[in-house]
Amino acid sequence: MLGVALVPFFGWAGAVVRYLPLLCTYWTLLYFDLVPRRRRLSHPALSCWLLRAVVRYFNYHVIVEDPSSLQPATPYIGAQSPHGIYPIATICGAPFNSAVFPGQDAYCLAASALQLQPFLWQWMECLGGRPISAAAIKEVVDQGDVCCLVPGGIAEMFMLDSSNRTEQILIRRGFVREALKNDVDIVPIYHFNHTQTFSYVLPPYLNAWLSVACRKTGLPGCFLIGRWGLFVPHKVDMFTVVGRPIPVRERIRQMRDRKTRGGKEGKIPGTEEVRSRECSVVEPTVEEIEAIVAEYKEALRRIYYNFRPVGSKRELIMIDNRGSPGSTVVGGNKEEQEGKSDGCERSLDR
C-alpha cells in the first residue's frame, strides 16, 4: 500500500494490477479468518519513525480543554469529529493518548471494510485499531480502556464543503446508545483542519452517487487527490481538542433511581443487586438518548468556536440523521427543522 501511495494518481491502475495477486491471497485468508489478530496495541509502534514523521509533517498537537475533568483509570468513549476524506488525525493522535489518558490504552474502532487493506490495517491494529461493533465497544470498556470512534463514518467522507465556507458534521446516535448501555461517559474530540488534507477528484454530483453506493456496501470508495497530484496529503497545521466529558454515567444513575422509586415500597431482601444488574442492561429510551445528543451537540459547538484557528470564518453545520435530511444545527444557533423520527436505530452507526 505504501508503494501505491507513491505513484502518481493516473498511474494507480498499473500498481493495483501488480499488487493484485497479493491482495487476492490476503482477501482469501481474511475470508477464512486466517489473518492473525492483535489483542492489544503495540506501545513500540506508537513511537516508530513513520508515525513521528506524520506528526511532524502536520505540526500536529493535542489540546485538552479541562485536564482535571478526565479521571484516571476511568473508561470513556471518545467521539471524534470530523471524519474527513481520510482519518489521518486519528492516527496522529495515537501517540498522544497515553498523556491524555494516563495509565490506559486507547483503541480506535473503525469500519470493518478497512481490513481489506493489507499492511495498512495491520499497522493500524498495532496503533489500537479494531473493527467497530457493539461487542468491541463493550470489550474495550470492560477492560478499563478508552474506546475512540468516529461517529460520522464513511458518510462524512462525502460531506466536505469545496468552498471552505462551512465545516459539516453528521450527528448519529449509535455511540450514545452504547455509552448508556455500558455506563461510560462520552469525551467529545474535535480535529481542526482535518478536512483540508485531501481534495475530491470527482464532481460533487458523482460524489453524491458514490456516497449512496458506499452506504449500501459498507466499503469506503472516495476518490481523492492530495499534494502534487499524488496520494500525499496537503501540508496543513492540524490539531485536536479533547473536550470535557459528557456525564452519561450520571444520567444512567438518575434513570436507575427513577426506576427504583417507581417500584413498590416493599423490598424483598437480596433483590437489590439483581435489580441493579437488570437496570445496567436495559435498552436506553429515546428521551435519554436525545438528552445526551443535545449535550454532545452543545459540546461540539463550544469546542469549535472556542478553539478554531484565528482568522477562520468557517461555520459549523451539524446535520442530524434522526429525522429528515434537512434537520440541521447551524453555527451557534439551534435552527432545527424537525422531521418525523424513524425511532432509535437498532444497529450501531458507523
TrEMBL record:
Membrane-crossing residue ranges in chain numbering: 12-32
Name of the protein in question: Acyltransferase
Bias (Basic and acidic residues) ranges: 333-350
Protein's membrane topology: Multi-pass membrane protein
Main location: endoplasmic reticulum
Subcellular localization(s) per the UniProt record: Endoplasmic reticulum membrane
Keyword Acyltransferase: yes
GO terms for biological process, alphabetical: triglyceride biosynthetic process
GO MF annotation, one: diacylglycerol O-acyltransferase activity
